[in-house]
Amino acid sequence: MGANQAMRDAADALPLILQLAQTSREGHLTDHDYALAVAQYENEMIPRAFKWVRSSGGTNENVSGHEYL
Q1: Exposed site from 5, 27, 49, 58, fewest CB < 10 Å?
Q2: Burial class of residue 67, CB neighbours in 10 A (0-12, 13-18, 19+)
Q3: Is the pLDDT of residue 68 over 70?
Q4: What is the DSSP secondary structure assignment for residue 30, as one 8-state letter?
Q5: Using CA atoms, how far apart are residues 43 and 59, in angstroms rounded to an integer?
């Protein structure tokens, strides 16, 4: 299951990485752009990943002080 999750993570992250690369080529990439891309990725990945964490016995979804539903 881990390999499937890694492939899904890569598929979710790729468009965000490509957008950051395009913005960087244009000379306008900021820390804020990067933070938004990371937040967007995490908002999609963490709930999906914690479904598998719960099924394997994990119960805590509090990551770095953020609680995800």
Answers
A1: 27
A2: exposed
A3: no
A4: -
A5: 18
What whole-number distance in Å separates Cα of residue 63 and Cα of residue 43?
12
Q: Tokens at residue 5, please?
A: 């999750």
Strand pairing partners for 27?
A: none
Which residue has 């999906």 as its token pair?
48
pLDDT digit string (tens) for 16-61?
A: 999 999 999 999 999 999 999 999 999 998 888 887 777 777 666 5
Structure token digits, residue 46: 């963490």
Spans of all domains in the chain: 28-58
